[in-house]
Amino acid sequence: MDRQVLKIHDHEDVGEIHIADEVIAIIAGLAATEVEGVKGMVGNLAGDIVELLGRKNLAKGVVVEVGEGCVSLTLAIVVTFGSQIIEVSKSVSEKVKNAVETMTGLTVEVVNINITGVDIEK
Description:
By secondary structure, the chain is an alpha+beta fold. The strands form 2 sheets. Strands 3, 4, 5 and 6 form a 4-stranded mixed sheet that branches. α3 links the parallel β5 (70-80) and β6 (107-119). It is elongated, with a radius of gyration of 15 Å. It has 3 helices and 6 strands; from the N terminus they run ββαβαββαβ. The longest helix is centred in the last third of the chain and has 20 residues, at 85-104.
């Protein structure tokens, strides 16, 4: 996986600040899992292998597309059975957008939510 790096600040006296897309994905993933009704995130095979090796994959289920001073995010989530999917999706979108914009200063153009499963507790 190629890491993309985005310059978020350039100041002649201090220098430049760069942020990796993986950092944005971690911020988005953590914000999404804090929303009530989200059971978890769904990753890809590579991310699942990383977790099997004992490292927690905090960027699991998040795809980041970096533009000029802005980002677009796509999240794959599993919701808890009985949750109102529309309300959970809206909450995730708002929380992720707010977290990424607050922490990075970047503009979030869009947050796409893919519901990939429903967790049914036994």
